[in-house]
Amino acid sequence: WTYAAEMETKSSTPRATVNDGSVKPALEASMTPKDSAIRRVALVVIAAVLFGVSIALKDGVEKASEYFAGYLLEQSLSVDNLFVFILVFKYFKVPLEYQNRVLSYGIAGAVIFRAVLIILGVATIQSFEAVNLFFAAILLFSSYKLFAGDEEESDLSDNFIVKTCQKFIPVTDYYDGDRFLINQDGIWKATPLLLTLVVIELSDIAFAVDSIPAIFGVTRDPLIILSSNIFAISGLRSLYVLISESMSELEYLQPAVGIVLGFIGAKMIFDFCGYHIPTEASLAVVTTCLSGGVILSLRKASSEERDK
């Protein structure tokens, strides 16, 4: 009787059937896209932290501090990029089920492009130390733009990148599933999905003008620069799922990024003049500014929600 009762209890556990005929626990099968995104973001963050710990064990605390400062900086800049992705998807009216495909290809392209840019940047700085001043000027100007109070471009119809792509790429006026190209009357044409991907890739190149000089202000180690960029970009697709609907709540993130970029630009100038700012101090400034921006934004959003 006991054995039969145990078997009945086990068989009563909810199961969910999937297409291949196998079974999975109902809890896993019922996982929402947001739950899945939280899991993936957590895995990427844990992997990034473990990689930083391995650097500390192998090369010491200073190298690890460079890595964590670079990772936090690149992650914050990547989050700022998500706002543009949201605008692009809205402008081209990309169906929600196709957005992940565009983001996947876009992230892969961003990793390849940034790897090339980092290699060229390291070689250039090693040959011409004065390039640091040029990078510092870019960061200070970017910091100024973030504090200038310019409104984000919400209408992309006059955007230079969008208009240029529409001019040179023949595009259909409809989506055909998740295809990038279709044959229309014997002529290969791009679907709006491919145009969306191209605009996102070119936008990332434009953003790299800020992010690559910024990481050079923290470290010159190619491995640290590349790894911090890869970890920051890898979780971008899942992060988009989590915060795409609440980007407007991160009101103080942009000013926080502006402070960080200004600090790193000034740090590069001091380094060029022979006054070195310790890496630990850089990490403290980056962490304090970014975490402070996020916390203040969430507190304000929560307060406004209570007042409604």
Automatic annotation (TrEMBL):
Domain of life, source organism: Eukaryota
One term under GO cellular component: membrane
Membrane topology: Multi-pass membrane protein
Pfam families, per the entry: TerC
Record-annotated membrane-spanning stretches: 37-57, 69-90, 102-124
Compartments, as annotated in UniProt: Membrane
Main location per the UniProt record: membrane
InterPro entries: Integral_membrane_TerC, Integral_membrane_TerC_rswitch
UniProt KW keywords: Membrane, Transmembrane, Transmembrane helix
PANTHER family: MEMBRANE BOUND PREDICTED REDOX MODULATOR (PTHR30238), THYLAKOID MEMBRANE PROTEIN TERC, CHLOROPLASTIC (PTHR30238:SF0)
This protein's name: Thylakoid membrane protein TERC, chloroplastic
